[in-house]
Amino acid sequence: MTFRVTVLGAGSIGIFVGGKLAAAGADVTFVGRPRLLDEIRASGLRLSDLEGGDDRVAPAAFRTETTPESAATADLVLVTVKSAQTAASAEQLVVPVRPGTAVLSLQNGIGNDTVIREILPSCTVLAGMVMFNVAHQGGGHFHRGTGGGLAVTDDPALDRFAPLFARAGLPLDRHADLRPVQWAKLLLNLNNPINALSGLPLREELGVRDYRRCLALAQAEALAVMRRAQIRPARLTPVPPELMVRVLRLPDRLFTRLSGAVVAADPQARSSMADDLALGRTTEIAWLSGEIVGLGRMVGTPTPVNARLVELIGTAERGDPRRWAGAELLAQLRAAKSGA
Fold this sequence. Notes:
There is one protein chain. This protein is of the alpha/beta class and about 350 residues long. The protein folds into 2 domains: about 5-175, NAD(P)-binding Rossmann-like Domain (Rossmann fold), CATH 3.40.50.720; about 180-340, N-(1-d-carboxylethyl)-l-norvaline Dehydrogenase, domain 2, CATH 1.10.1040.10. The chain contains 15 helices and 12 strands. An 8-stranded mixed β-sheet has the order 5-2-1-6-7-8-11-12, with helices on both faces. A 4-stranded mixed β-sheet has the order 4-3-10-9.
């Protein structure tokens, strides 16, 4: 059986995941903006990865559209838009999508599946997370530059699709409760604003102790708020979240010895937030550091470090081109913490 898959949000993540499914035999339609759709229609897809994989998908092997008419016949809809676009994108599905259709949110942040479920109550809406980074390298080339897979909420609706994802090299890591995984991924993603403000590739940024100290401050603050809210993040790396804060503070030489177990990334991989700033787009800071700030308000715990990161990214979104040295950024975050 050939599954029909609509990818709502044809950015780097959506095109990579959808392209891998197309390479595995699915009938895939990408829904997105003309800029990227025109590119992939002209060149087809090249999907490479950290481990040396390199798949090619011809333009004839997928479809493109700017509105999700294909959802009317889709067996599976993947929502891969930025969190700020979740509600508007789900509204586009109200008319075409059939009751009972499986809708899988593959997005950063907490609660996007809830937003979609409220708008599409007749569908089977499930939460998911993409645990890797994808870089758009032009000419239809999309490269997975970090390790990780797909984590999803377990549900019988996924049983029929699991073999397809496995053939695509994207086996589904199914969880009875995805929330601990989402919070753990959010902890890791607190590096996104630091990486974006640094202007450096991920590996180079994480090789500088002062940037790692910035991340340690943000994660320690987030963990304190989570404990107050009785949230226990999952363990996604060989190093548990509480110990990660200490590892990040290690001198460069010691961190380098451990970094193979902590950081699996190509030399040129950057965060999606860095890509958004480079393209002049609004970032997902409200769903990353902003999520910690909001949770802190709910439980009565100050979050000055993450609040300062929200402010700095907001300034960058408004056109400030500054790239922060590690020592400068660390001073900013320490000042915010001491002034709280």
